[in-house]
Protein 1
Amino acid sequence: MQTLKPFENLFLSIGAMKAGTTWLYAVLGRHPELHFAMEKEIHYFYHRFVNSNQLSEKRRLKEAYDHYIPRFDPKTSHVDVVRQNLRWIAAYLDRPVDDLWYRNLFQLRDHETYACDFSNLNAHLPAEAWPRISDSSQKLRVLYTLRHPVKRLWSHTKFHLELTGRADKLDHWGPHEFEAFLRQPHIWENAEYGAVLRRAGAGLQPDQFKAIFYEDLHADQRGTLADIEQFLGVAAFDYPKSLLEKRFTESVKRPMPAFFTDLVADDVARITADVEAQGYTIPDSWRS
């Protein structure tokens, strides 16, 4: 008799940040076999294995207030939708934050094959966390998306400065200020693709983990989506062309300073060599 595991079928996208994960989330959210909770990035496993304050009550209350509390019009809203949203918010604010808490965030899943969680912080899980997550899942699939290191760093820089109300720095900072910003752990750790690949590769079976390139995704959207569907073992789906062409979470428009590439040139060469050493063929555009 098969033992029921707490997470059943689980599909995790773990980043990299600013490497197309929001686009994938929006597009794959249309697949009838994939169920997403109200929150794209739950960060439960990061909370459990790295930082136990990630899902503190204070932080969850703020998230609920900022993003989840429904502002609905009684004249136009459907009562069942409002009820479902309130049920999810109640589950998100429940305690304790444990495996049952996480499972309950997918309580509205019906016939869908997978519960899906696109949390970029999960890229930073230690290798030993992955077998524990796998042992708690009926079926686990983990996707990691890599992007040209310099272009991703620039996009991440713009996004973070805009998010924190400092977009004006993009026009005034020089090399010293940009480098100091980039070297902060919460920024730089997202650039270390090789470390993420090693940790995931050490903790997951080959059929549980897939790495793709942002450049390949946008050169052949439907082909890459078909590869992901095959990786998951779900049926092919005809995604609307209008959705594939849509852009999400675009950062402010600023040209990359001429000096920016030189700030990270040695690191990019090391990171690229690290990715290749693990058997991946990088896109040609990474060399330009």
Note: The radius of gyration is 20 Å.
Protein 2
Amino acid sequence: MKLFFLLWILPVTLGDTHVTCIYSEECMLPCTSTNLGIIHWYKDKNPVHSYYNNQDQLDYQHKDYKGRTSLFSQSEIKNGNVSLLIRNIRVQDEGRYRCYAADDKTNDEKYVVVAVEAPAKSVDITLKDDTVTCNTSGVYPEPNVSWSSAPPAKEPLSTVSQREDNLFTVTSQLKVDVSDTYIYNCSITTKNAKKNIYTASLKQQAASELNNEFIFKCPITKDLDYTLTLSFSTTILRYDSKTSMKDIPMQWRDKVTFHPENGSIILSHLNQEQMGTYTCESTTAQYRYITQTKLPPRGLGTGAYIGIGVTAAILLVAICFVVKILQKRFCSADSGEKSHSPEAQQLNGISPSPETNGDALTP
């Protein structure tokens, strides 16, 4: 057996094949040969997988690959497919692998260079005071962070650290001048930029109001499956574009209307307690959009304010009218007192004149 394991015949070396493997997933290292008696896979000098006598021979397999490797079926091998499958890819699996295949007459060698990537699966973005923070973890290789914003902001400050498992954590902060409407985009990019870009967006917008209905949009991606949630202290809408399933709590069903074809949301029949900030989050495998929409205090539109003004004016006129009537009555009462009898005038401290009393005393 050892003779087979150590068998070396002058190899035929071809150009390297490059493969990118995704962290924690399976990865296939391609190799074909017509020499099928003995198959060895190596990384550096470490044996990764061996096959001869029509079966796997793993006594000499390096401990880092125990239980993680396999070849294809015997029928595939007989057809010349000697590719290696590695499960649960790790950062340590990066490197140059040698595929060695031989029979009793000749042998050949081929090389596969493995790169490992752990793209960002989610990015958090938050705004506190005048700082927008974007962060993610479990990324490999070391990522790049890029920002875009409206209104424009200062240069970001980013920090990157590497964990014990060799994956990276990144935090980036952007100082901003907060306004009533804004949008901040943070993108995390790994080496294969065309595929592995994750963008998080934070946006604040105003709602349009028409006939006491508030209308606004949540960003959606028509070409990608997405999930959407709308919340106001609690979640009031969930939508899954893949299944077209929509979930709205009973108490909100007559208040929330969602149009998945364009992401528009209509809120109606709201009371004063339901005014405030609504947060819509739309998420895909590569994007996360967080949109906050502020509704006016108490939900009163222009028409309502005009109505209140008209009502107040009518009430003021009515008060003035009542006041005038009361003033008239008081004035009439005052003039009536002047025509009282002499006795009444005396009670009020008024001396009767001779003209007002025909029964004046004679001397």
Note: Residues 302-337 form the longest helix (36 residues).
